[in-house]
Design a protein that fits this description.
The complex is a heterodimer of chains A (about 60) and B (about 200). By secondary structure, chain A is mostly helical. Chain A is built from two helices and no strands. The relative contact order of chain A is 0.12. The model of chain A has no long low-confidence stretch (mean pLDDT about 85). Chain B folds into three domains: about 1-45; about 65-140, no CATH class; about 145-200, no CATH class. Chain B has helices at about 1-5, 15-45, 60-80, 85-90, 95-115, 115-125, 135-140, 145-165, 180-200, and strands at about 175, 175-180. Mean pLDDT of chain B is about 75; it is low at about 200-203. Classes of the chains: A mainly alpha (about 60), B mainly alpha (about 200). The interface of A and B includes residues 34 and 35 of A.
Chain lengths: ~60, ~200
C-alpha cells in the first residue's frame, strides 16, 4: 500500500507541475500579447501557482 | 462544484450537473482573468529585466559608487551657488532683485556642472513664454569655462597672423594640408568636438 501511495503522490506531483507549467505559460502568453512586452518566468510561475491553488478548491 | 453537481454534498449546495459545470467554467474564467490582471500589475510595477539578479548584488559596486558621487555632486554645485533653499522649496520670493540673483546663481551652477548642463542654458533661454525675462537673459550667457579652449582661438589667430605676415616661414604639410588659418581653425573645431564627446566635462 505504501508503494502505491508513493506512486500516486509522484503521479499527482507530475500532474500538478504540468498543470502549473501550462497555466503559467498560458497566462504569460496572454499578458505578453495584451501588453506587448516580454514577461518574466519567475512572476509567471508565481502567479500560475496562486491560480492553481485557487482552482483546486473551486473545482472540488 | 464537482460535489455539488454529483449529489455528493448532502449538507450543502446541490445543483444540476449543467449548472455546476457552468459555475465551474465561470470560476476558472474569473481565476484566470484575475491571474492575468495580477501579472499585468506586477509587470507594470516591476518590469522584467529591471530587478537586479543575485550576482549583481556582488558586482558593479565601483560603478554604483561613481554614479552616487555624481548624483551627490550635481546638487552640491547648486547648493554652493546659492540654490540650496530653492531646491528644498523654502526660498521666499521678494521681487525682481531676488529673481536676478537666482538667475545668476542658476547660470553659474549650470556653467560649473559640466557640458551637458551648459547646453541646457541656451536651450532654456529660448522658452521666452515659459521663463521670466531675467532668467532668459542670464541663461543666454551660459558657456563653458574651458581655460585651454578659450585661449586656443587667440593662439590660432596669432600663429595665423605670423604665418600670413611672413614673420616666420613654415613649410609644413600635415596629412597633405598646408598649415594655414583654415587648417588650424578646423583642427580647433575637431579638438572641441573630441573633448566634449570623449569627456563630457570641462576638465
Amino acid at each position: 500500500m505504501a508503494g502505491v501511495d508513493i506512486v500516486v503522490i509522484v503521479l499527482l506531483s507530475i500532474a500538478g507541475m504540468l498543470f502549473l507549467t501550462l497555466q503559467s505559460g498560458l497566462a504569460a502568453t496572454v499578458v505578453r500579447r495584451v501588453v506587448a512586452v516580454p514577461i518574466g518566468w519567475l512572476s509567471s510561475i508565481a502567479v500560475g501557482f496562486v491560480m492553481s491553488a485557487a482552482m483546486g478548491p473551486s473545482v472540488q | 462544484m464537482l460535489r455539488a453537481g454529483t449529489d455528493q454534498n448532502p449538507n450543502g449546495l446541490n445543483v444540476a450537473r449543467t449548472v455546476a459545470m457552468l459555475f465551474l467554467i465561470l470560476a476558472i474564467g474569473w481565476i484566470f482573468a484575475l491571474g492575468v490582471a495580477a501579472l499585468v500589475y506586477f509587470e507594470a510595477a516591476f518590469p522584467t529585466g529591471t530587478l537586479r539578479s543575485f550576482s549583481q548584488i556582488f558586482t558593479g559596486w565601483e560603478a554604483r559608487r561613481r554614479r552616487a558621487r555624481r548624483y551627490a555632486f550635481v546638487p552640491s554645485i547648486a547648493v554652493r551657488h546659492g540654490l540650496g533653499a530653492r531646491l528644498r522649496g523654502v526660498g521666499h520670493d521678494d521681487g525682481f532683485a531676488q529673481d536676478a540673483k537666482i538667475a545668476q546663481a542658476l547660470r553659474n551652477a549650470l556653467n560649473k556642472a559640466g557640458v551637458a548642463f551648459i547646453k541646457m542654458g541656451p536651450m532654456l533661454s529660448t522658452g521666452v513664454d515659459l521663463l521670466p525675462g531675467v532668467y532668459i537673459r542670464e541663461l543666454e550667457y551660459c558657456k563653458p569655462k574651458l581655460p585651454l579652449l578659450n585661449r586656443l582661438p587667440r593662439l590660432i589667430n596669432k600663429i595665423s597672423e605670423d604665418l600670413e605676415q611672413g614673420r616666420f616661414s613654415m613649410n609644413v604639410r600635415v596629412l597633405g594640408h598646408s598649415l594655414d588659418r583654415s587648417f588650424l581653425t578646423g583642427l580647433f573645431q575637431q579638438l572641441i568636438v573630441m573633448l566634449v564627446f570623449r569627456n563630457g566635462t570641462d576638465d
